[in-house]
Structure formats: C-alpha cells, structure tokens
C-alpha cells in the first residue's frame, strides 16, 4: 500500500512538472496552423505616410517574398490616413458601426487605444505566440509599455521615439549675440519662457513704428505630452492607470497652465501651421518641442520674401520644470493582432517577429528616424554604420544623426515615461489637450484686445487674471470628466 502511494505521488509530481513545462513553452511548442500550399492573407492597417509608408511597404514586400512565401503568409498593407483616422476606423470596426470595414488582422496601435479595443473582446494575447526569450529580446522599457496588468501582451513595439527641443540655431545665435543668453537658458521651461519673452521684446523693438509686433520663440507639437510630462516632472501621474483615474494636482497643473497659457496669450509661444516644423520654415518660430522621429522634417532653410536662407540645426534634451525630475515621453505606436483564426493570428505574429528583428528593424527605424526596439540592435554594426553614413550625408540626414545620441541617452539612461492606460485614458488625454488649447485661443483673443487698448505686456497679463482663467479651466476639466464618467481625484 505504501509502495503504491509512493508511486502515485511520484507520478503526480512528474505530471505537475510536465504540465508546468508545457505551460511555460506553449508559444514555442504550439502546432503551426500555417500551410505554404494554402497561404493565409493578412490585412495590416497603418498610419505611416511619406518615407515611412514607403519603408513599410518595402519591408512588407520583402517579407512576402521570403519568410511569408516559405511559411504561407501574405501581408497586405493599407494606409488609413493619420493616426486619428486609423484609430477612428479601428474603433468603428471593433464596435460594428454600420458601413464600417471589417476588422483588420493586424494594425498600428497605441497602448490606450489597444486597451479600449481589448475591452470589446477583439485583441489577441500575444503571450500565446511570443516566448519569454523572444520577449526578452526587446528593450525592457519598450515592451513594458505594451503590457497590460503587467501580464497580457496586447501590442508589440515596432519603433519608439521620445521628444526633444529643436532649435533654428541660426536665428537663436543671432538673438544670443545680442541678449547675452546661451543654450543653458533652454534647459528649463521657466528659462524658455524668460528667453521667449526677451525674444519677443527684442524683435518688437526692431520695428518701433509698430508696437506689439514681436515674434514668437517657442512652440509645442503635442500639448497633451506637455501636460502629462510636466505633471510627471513635478511629481504627479495625471493618468493613473493603477487606480484607473485622473489625478488633478492643483499646484502642478497651475505651473503647467500658467507657463503655456501666459506664453501663448502674450505671443511668446505660438502654433500657426499644422506642424511646428512648418512654423520654423516660415520663420514664425525659432524652437519647438517635438518627436525625435521628426528630425528629418526639420527644415534646412527658411523662406522669407520669396527668398530661401539656409539655417543650422540644434537639438537639445527635453526641458524640465525648475525643481522637477528630468523626464521625457517614451512613445511610438506598436502593432496589435485581432482575434480571428489560428492561421491569421500566427501569420500576424510571424510578421511581427520578422519585422522587429534587428536586421529589418534597424533599416526601418533609421529610414524613418525612430529608434529600433530590440536590445541587440544597439550593438549591431549595421546600426553604427547607418549612423556614420547619415553623419556624412546631406543636411537633413546629419540632423537625424545628431538627434539619435540625445534620444538614446534620454531613453536608455534618463527618466522616460509612458503612462499606464486604463479604459478611458484615451479620452482623458484628448480632453487635456483640447481643453487647454481651446481656452488658450480665447485668452489670446482677449490679450490682443487689451494690447489694442495700449496696455503693456504686464498690464495685459494682469488683465488676463491667470488665477481666474486657471480656475475656469479646472472647472471645465472636472465637467468634461464627469460627463464621460472618468474618475478623478484632486490633490
């Protein structure tokens, strides 16, 4: 009897070990659903345009002719316009909106939108297709931002970026030579505000016959990022994914609000065109905060009075609020796989593995100005060779090469941040940006009216009453959050 009991216990122990081993290696041992004789067609929706779109289509064509042909997978890439257009199309498809297209098998996706689509039961957990070793090949912080509840893998990082401060060095140096400032003035947001005020006054004084026609120094590509990172630098995680709520810290929000609102209303900051790089080209701005992936779009010349004048490029680390912790955004859409058939899911995962492998990912990232996502890419000779080639290329390529060192340092060695999403965090981000931009438009109009009355800059600022304007903005935020049922706490 004792002998039978021992044997039974031994068998049970062995069974537990076998089951544990099977559970840990499901992704690698799963029987393939792919058949080269019956290729599966995968529809991929993305938002890339220009050189990025060309680079993606080239990669897809290479995959289809090589690994895809061998395994039985054909990728069909479809551009869906901007990221906003893509997200709207994905949402409509997932919700089954009338006349919406069927869900694609694979699509570009930011984490907060991915979580929203997952709540509709539409996303595949990619832990089933990516082994632990395969997941470990990615830069830890990049993969972490794509996981939900630190477990479910709903996105695979494709390329990443951060934000930097871009400067028209030619215009900045002309101002610096007269003002006595230097590049260190641009290291803090408060320093930028003071420099922008001095620049406005300096340019205004150049036309004494016309008062109040100074020029703007600074702009922001993403106001939402500015709000989120500004709060984070000051100690508040405004998008709290852990408790699924917004955190409204009055003191921190006030600092973020005053600097942006005051700067925009008084003309120290500006946003004229769709992109701040276009404002640089038109001579409407000297500097702006934008994505490291946008270095290739920084103009190499400005146009004034139908004359093109070459300009030099300067890239600096992301600014920090005085007394805050230096922090910059970590961003970049990954790709998600729709729940469908085993063959389509496996085929989509196969493409993602191939596309993010260093051999392909370095080429795509360097072409588009983004950062590769695999750890091994940064030790790869091709990566270093590409940097050297860009450094010896035309001015646009040199600009991109100059940005990589700063961007890599920010992401690898400094504090970068990607907010943890929750169900309504996508809407929260939109509310933060649109509400501040909307109230600023009204304030700018009021400031222009005050100036027309002959008020000085300080008198305009006093008349605007930033305390009252902030209270109105905060009340508007609360109202919009309540309207959408987004939980929030106030500190």
UniProtKB/TrEMBL annotation:
<feature type="signal peptide">
    <location>
        <begin position="1"/>
        <end position="20"/>
    </location>
</feature>
<dbReference type="InterPro" id="IPR006059">
    <property type="entry name" value="SBP"/>
</dbReference>
<dbReference type="Pfam" id="PF13416">
    <property type="entry name" value="SBP_bac_8"/>
</dbReference>
<comment type="similarity">
    <text>Belongs to the bacterial solute-binding protein 1 family.</text>
</comment>
<protein>
    <submittedName>
        <fullName>Extracellular solute-binding protein</fullName>
    </submittedName>
</protein>
<dbReference type="InterPro" id="IPR050490">
    <property type="entry name" value="Bact_solute-bd_prot1"/>
</dbReference>
<keyword id="KW-0732">Signal</keyword>
<keyword id="KW-0813">Transport</keyword>
């Amino acid at each position: 009897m004792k002998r039978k009991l021992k044997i039974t216990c031994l068998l049970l122990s062995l069974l537990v070990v076998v089951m544990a081993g099977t559970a840990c290696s499901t992704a690698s041992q799963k029987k393939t659903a792919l058949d080269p004789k019956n290729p599966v067609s995968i529809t991929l929706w993305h938002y890339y345009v220009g050189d990025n779109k060309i680079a993606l289509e080239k990669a897809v064509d290479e995959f289809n002719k090589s690994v895809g042909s061998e395994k039985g997978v054909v990728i069909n890439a479809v551009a869906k316009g901007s990221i906003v257009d893509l997200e709207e199309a994905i949402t409509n498809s997932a919700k089954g909106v009338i006349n919406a297209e069927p869900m694609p098998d694979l699509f570009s996706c930011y984490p907060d939108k991915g979580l929203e689509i997952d709540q509709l039961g539409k996303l595949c957990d990619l832990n089933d297709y990516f082994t632990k070793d395969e997941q470990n090949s990615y830069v830890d912080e990049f993969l972490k931002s794509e996981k939900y509840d630190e477990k479910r893998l709903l996105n695979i990082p494709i390329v990443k970026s951060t934000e930097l401060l871009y400067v028209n060095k030619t215009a900045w140096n002309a101002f610096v030579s007269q003002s006595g400032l230097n590049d260190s003035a641009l290291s803090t947001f408060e320093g930028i505000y003071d420099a922008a005020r001095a620049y406005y006054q300096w340019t205004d004084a150049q036309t004494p016959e016309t008062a109040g026609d100074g020029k703007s120094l600074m702009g922001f590509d993403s106001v939402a990022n500015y709000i989120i990172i500004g709060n984070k630098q000051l100690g508040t995680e405004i998008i709290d994914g852990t408790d699924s709520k917004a955190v409204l810290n009055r003191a921190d929000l006030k600092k973020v609000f005053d600097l942006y609102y005051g700067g925009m209303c008084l003309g120290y900051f500006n946003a004229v065109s769709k992109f701040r790089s276009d404002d640089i080209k038109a001579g409407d701005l000297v500097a702006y905060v934008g994505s490291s992936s946008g270095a290739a779009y920084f103009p190499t010349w400005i146009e004034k009075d139908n004359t093109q004048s070459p300009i030099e490029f300067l890239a600096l680390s992301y600014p920090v609020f005085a007394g805050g912790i230096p922090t910059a955004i970590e961003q970049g859409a990954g790709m998600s796989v729709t729940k469908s058939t085993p063959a389509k899911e496996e085929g989509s995962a196969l493409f993602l593995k191939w596309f993010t492998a260093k051999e392909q990912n370095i080429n795509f990232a360097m072409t588009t100005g983004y950062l590769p996502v695999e750890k091994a890419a940064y030790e790869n000779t091709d990566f270093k060779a590409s940097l050297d080639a860009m450094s010896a290329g035309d001015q646009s390529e040199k600009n991109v090469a100059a940005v990589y060192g700063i961007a890599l340092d920010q992401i690898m060695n400094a504090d970068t941040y990607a907010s943890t999403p929750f169900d309504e965090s996508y809407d929260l981000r939109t509310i933060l940006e649109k509400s501040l931009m909307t109230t600023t438009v009204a304030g700018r109009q009021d400031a222009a009216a005050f100036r027309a009355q002959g008020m000085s800059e300080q008198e305009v600022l006093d008349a605007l009453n930033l305390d009252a304007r902030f209270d109105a903005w905060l009340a508007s935020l609360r109202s919009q959050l309540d309207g959408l049922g987004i939980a929030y706490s106030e500190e």
